[in-house]
Amino acid sequence: MRRTGLLALFDGPQTAWNGMSFRLCFVLAVLALATVPLYAEFFVVNNLAYFLLWTFMALGLSLIWGYAGILSFGQTAFFGLAGYGYGVVSINLGDAHGLTWVAFLAALVLPALLAALIGYFMFYGGIRDVFVGIVTLSITLVFETFMAQTAGPEWHIGSARLNGFNGMSGMPALTVPWFGGEDVMLDGNTFFWFVLALLVVVYLALRWLVNSRFGNVLVAIRENPDRAEMLGYNVRRYQTIAFVIGGTLAGVSGILYTTWGSYITPSSMGLTSAALPIIWVAAGGRKDITATMVATVFLIWVSQTLAVKGAQYALVLMGVLLLLVVLLAPEGLVLATVRGIRRVVLRVTGRRVATTAMAKRTEGS
Amino acid sequence: MAALLETRGLTKYFGGLYAINGVDLTIDAGEIRCLIGPNGAGKSTLFKLIIGTYQPTGGTVLFGGADLTLLKPYQRVNQGLSIKFQVPGIFLDLLVDQNLRIALQQKSGPHEIDEEVDRLLDFLDLAQSRDMQAGNLSHGQQQWLEIGMAIALKPRLLLLDEPTAGMSPEETFKTGELVKRLNAEGMTVIVIEHDMTFVRQIAKKVTVLHFGKVFDEGSLEDIINSDDVARIYLGKD
Description:
A: mainly alpha, B: six-stranded mixed beta sheet, four-stranded antiparallel beta sheet
């Protein structure tokens, strides 16, 4: 647990897998993903981008629920707000001169501010445990209901029509001003690479954050908020900050989703949508961001595959999965699977591993 | 010697009952003070008023001359107070090492923490258990770990609420020696305790609470030999 060097900043007790072999796996996985567009067809790449763009919301929920112990049932409120925010700003500003990035930033600030506001009133008001879930779920349902009734032509912001239950559409994709005056649109392969790069940055930033002093305090609050306060930490402030980060990450997913399909609807803030992130994070292993990320991509892929045969099957499966995980592997599928494999490996090569571990320990001391 | 902690007319009213009723308590820097009294005398409530878990109905808490009464618990801790609760309040799912780190990072720089963890583990006699989950420690060890977390903050005043509850006589004795060593290093300590052997081991001065009031206060010998104190403890008339 001694820490030295720059790379060690991303390792620590709050991430399940650390060290050189994990870093190698991580780099290989990123390379494998990044090279997919070189040989796969558009359909595959486009789907893969779709799987990845949801992980930001899941990572945010892992941070606030798995690490800080706050179960938010309403991450979709931030998702939707950011999606609509991007739509309204980008439709009004247009996509010339990279103005879509103004929309991108504005759409990130909105959920951050909302999360700060809700977080402040909840945590400084002493709301705890299941009541946080109730408050946040109510907020996302209120948003859904409100947006669903904006069908009439009177519901517009500038030139952006809100369109009620059918949702808003026609927002431009992200564009990058390029040399020679031509804008490059992020779609297809470039959008996929953008999402992947952003995910790598966010994932590494979160690894650093949860293993930092700040992450230690979050975990302390999850384990025992009263003791954390008696160690001199302003618990409410830490909870609010974590909630803002989680809300902003849900916003990232919302923006990416909106640009991906060029539409956003109120149902993305509804009950079903609100429940899915909880399932991904719980099933993966909420106390670890890597487990959460892997499980989210996997489960969305499964849902997507099943949805071809009818959307209801995917939802039923997700529900059953949640039950099974809660009953059988409360620490999450990914962690349980890896531990299971390790146990089998240990049983087979038991002696050898035990001796090496012993030797290492003696060397270390 | 200057007063480190002073409560003036401290009062806490819980719907129909004065749990603490006008307590004036003065603790000098460098003292080990024992708070004793029958169950329900208000000892733990007094601690909660000092640390800020409860807001008093009346009266003030002064610490090093500064008025703490309106501060939140974490602010009081940052002023130099630290508490070990009656019920062990450690992070049960985390490793012993991590429990200490979370406490130590408040006052120690990132380069000192490794050394400080080693020092505390030695001091608490927990070096063997470093990589254990705190929840797997014995009850006595959990109490020591919590004391360790409380002193990791390098407090000027340490509040210990029944630090030896559930401990064997040997563990109790060891805890007493630990408290005396901390005091010798300059830490002021207030201890709530029922075990009179333990009180004899550590205290010079004892305050007796009864029905939310200071019933008696004096040197250890005076209190032990007081008929009045024996009467409220044993219920004799």
